[in-house]
Write a structure and sequence with these properties.
alpha+beta, eight-stranded mixed β-sheet
C-alpha cells in the first residue's frame, strides 16, 4: 500500500506540473468525517496559490491568448457537478454528491467538493485519486496501482484496512516514474515546479476518539498520508530517499519514512479506532 501511495502521488504531481507548466501551485486534501452511526461525509479540497490564480485571471482578461481564445482555469475541471456526481460512485455504494463550494486560503483560491455516505463499511478510497480530474493519463494509470483502503465499522469501533500493493503493477508503474537525479537541468526545473505542493488524506471521528493505534493522530483526526513537497525538497535527496525505500517490509518502511521530513504514511495494514460513545453510562 505504501508504494501505491508514493507512486500514485508522484504520478499525479508530475502530471499536474506538465499541465500547469508553472511553479508552486497546489494543495489537495481529502477528509472523511465519521459519525456515531457509521454515516458521514467526504470532502475534497483543492487550492491553487495566488501566483497561479493571478496568472489565470490575467489570461482571462487577455481573452485567453494561446488557448484558442478561452482561458483554461484548473478550477473549471473541479466545478462540474456532473463529474462530481459520477465520481461519487468511485467512493463506494451509497455515496452521493452534496455540493461544490469555492474556497479561499492564504491568498489562493480553490474548490471544496462534499459527498455523503450512509455506511462507511461501503466506502473505499484510493490515495491521490482526486487529482485525476486535473491531470492527463499518467494519474489515471497510477490509479490502477495498488489496492483501495477500506473500512469496517461496528459497535463504535472502526478498522482502517490498507492491503499491500500488487507488487507487479507497482514495479511496472515505477519504471515509468523514475525521477532524474540532480544536477540534470530538467530535474532541477521539475523540483522547482513541485515546490508548494501538499497532499493529505485524513479521517476525523465526529464524536471524538477514545483510543487508537494509528501512527499519526492529532485530536479527533487521523492522518493516513501526507506529502509536503516543500519539506521534502528542503533536502535535495528527499525524493530520491523516498524512491529507495523498500515497501515490502512495513517495519523497515516505517523506520525509513520517519527520517524523511514532509512525509507521513500509515504503515500498518490495519488501524483500529474506538470512538467516544455518546450513550449515557
Amino acid at each position: 500500500m505504501l508504494k501505491a501511495i508514493m507512486k500514485r502521488l508522484l504520478a499525479s504531481l508530475l502530471a499536474l506540473t506538465a499541465v500547469l507548466v508553472t511553479p508552486s501551485c497546489l494543495e489537495y486534501e481529502t477528509n472523511i468525517t465519521l459519525n456515531q452511526d457509521g454515516s458521514g461525509t467526504i470532502t475534497e479540497e483543492t487550492v491553487f496559490n495566488a501566483q497561479i490564480i493571478g496568472m489565470l485571471e490575467m489570461t482571462a482578461l487577455q481573452g485567453g491568448q494561446g488557448n484558442g481564445g478561452q482561458a483554461k482555469s484548473p478550477l473549471n475541471a473541479l466545478k462540474d457537478p456532473e463529474k462530481a456526481k459520477a465520481k461519487a460512485k468511485d467512493y463506494g455504494e451509497g455515496v452521493t454528491f452534496v455540493k461544490i463550494e469555492e474556497i479561499a486560503r492564504n491568498g489562493g483560491k480553490g474548490v471544496r467538493v462534499t459527498y455523503k455516505f450512509a455506511d462507511i463499511n461501503k466506502v473505499s478510497i484510493n490515495p491521490g485519486e482526486g487529482l485525476t480530474n486535473l491531470t492527463p493519463s499518467p494519474a489515471t494509470e497510477a490509479k490502477e496501482v495498488g489496492t483501495a483502503t477500506t473500512f469496517t465499522f461496528a459497535d463504535n469501533k472502526l478498522s482502517i484496512i490498507s492491503p499491500d500493493v500488487d507488487t507487479e503493477k507497482a514495479r511496472n508503474t515505477a519504471d515509468d516514474l523514475e525521477i532524474p537525479d540532480p544536477p540534470d537541468p530538467q530535474a532541477a526545473q521539475m523540483m522547482q515546479m513541485l515546490k508548494g505542493m501538499k497532499m493529505t488524506s485524513k479521517i476525523t471521528a465526529a464524536p471524538g476518539i477514545a483510543n487508537t493505534d494509528a501512527t499519526f493522530q492529532s485530536g479527533d483526526t487521523i492522518t493516513l498520508y501526507e506529502m509536503d513537497l516543500d519539506k521534502i525538497l528542503a533536502n535535495p535527496e528527499g525524493l530520491n530517499a523516498m524512491k529507495g525505500i523498500d515497501m515490502s517490509d512495513r517495519t523497515k518502511a516505517a523506520a525509513a519514512l520517519s527520517k524523511i521530513k514532509g512525509v507521513k504514511a500509515e504503515t500498518k495494514e490495519k488501524v483500529t479506532v474506538e470512538l467516544i460513545s455518546d450513550e449515557p453510562k
